[in-house]
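dumping this here so i dont lose it
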């Protein structure tokens, strides 16, 4: 049985971690860390946990947690993890970082897109990119896991088979992505206030979103070619969910069935990937509150365009669910443990 720590437990991703882990059969004890809510009962912050998680948040350091926990989740903004993780800490415990500090292989690329100095360059090569469906065989050998971003998870999983099997050209890939407001986190932000986001649809960080180099990096590894693509995110007035629509050009004159079979083969051993049959298009409500990623394929023969639609819950498969999936892999549990959640349609 595991003792688990969560730093940043009172954010949206952190609270979802608590919700999943409190019912995880291999987890015995959870330490909740929140500097802002130190000493306050977790159920006073989130009333949904009343009579379920009534113990208090603490303000323990990562070093302190590393000495008593088997695994520690870091659910904090970028820049913080790199300041507090050390070689000693990843020797003592497993770290799953939900932030961006160890996702990018190239320090220069990270510093360019995130506009801060990286504080732990020596640990980059000691981290594994935790996209479970692609790196499960490697993850179990690491103590520092970089949990992927939400947009990146949906984008990479949607495009990976097409690039692996050379079904599409690597030039001019366009990803149109849409996210619910919870993707912006729980901190006060004028752009995500109710009156700003309700009854409104807007693009943001056009040609400059920080998930772009992460998507390009991992797709380049899969394809064996340098991928440079266009990624445009949009904010939609809903609480949770991500939908990505990727526009690609066929390399050869493949039929729909050939493409569909390639996707089914690629993900045949991955429970959380659902490749939908012809004519079915993913919707965010089909994956809401679950760790599933739904992928739909549309072949436009008229323009030789393969349109790939992906849908995930940004807080589960795009954050906390995938983090628990990584924990399961690290400790040799079935990947579905604690995550066999039926999507809540309404």
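and the seq i came up w/
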């Amino acid at each position: 049985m595991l003792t688990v720590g969560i730093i940043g437990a009172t954010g949206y991703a952190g609270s979802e971690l608590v919700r999943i882990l409190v019912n995880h059969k291999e987890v015995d004890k959870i330490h909740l860390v929140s500097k802002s809510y130190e000493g306050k009962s977790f159920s006073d912050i989130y009333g949904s946990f009343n009579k379920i998680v009534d113990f208090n948040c603490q303000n323990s350091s990562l070093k302190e947690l590393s000495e008593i926990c088997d695994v520690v989740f870091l659910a904090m903004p970028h820049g913080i993890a790199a300041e507090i993780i050390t070689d000693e800490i990843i020797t003592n415990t497993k770290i799953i970082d939900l932030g961006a500090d160890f996702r990018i292989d190239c320090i220069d690329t990270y510093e360019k897109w995130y506009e801060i100095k990286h504080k732990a360059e020596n640990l980059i090569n000691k981290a594994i990119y935790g996209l479970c469906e692609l790196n499960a065989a490697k993850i179990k050998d690491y103590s520092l896991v970089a949990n992927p971003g939400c947009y990146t998870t949906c984008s990479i999983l949607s495009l990976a088979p097409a690039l692996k099997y050379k079904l599409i050209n690597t030039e001019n890939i366009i990803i149109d992505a849409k996210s619910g407001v919870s993707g912006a986190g729980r901190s006060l932000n004028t752009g995500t206030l109710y009156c700003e986001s309700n009854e409104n649809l807007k693009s943001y960080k056009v040609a400059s979103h920080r998930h772009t180099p992460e998507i390009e990096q991992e797709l380049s590894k899969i394809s064996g070619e340098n991928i440079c693509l266009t990624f445009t995110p949009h904010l939609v007035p809903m609480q949770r969910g991500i939908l990505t629509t990727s526009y690609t050009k066929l390399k050869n004159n493949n039929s729909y069935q050939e493409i569909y079979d390639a996707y089914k083969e690629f993900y045949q051993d991955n429970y959380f990937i659902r490749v939908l049959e012809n004519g079915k298009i993913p919707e965010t409500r089909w994956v809401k509150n679950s760790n599933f990623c739904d992928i739909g394929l549309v072949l436009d023969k008229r323009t030789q365009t393969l349109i790939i639609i992906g849908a995930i819950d940004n807080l589960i498969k795009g954050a906390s669910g995938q983090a628990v999936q990584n924990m399961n892999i690290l400790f040799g549990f079935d990947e579905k443990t604690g995550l066999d959640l039926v999507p809540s349609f309404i």
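Residues 299 and 306 are 5 Å apart (CA to CA).
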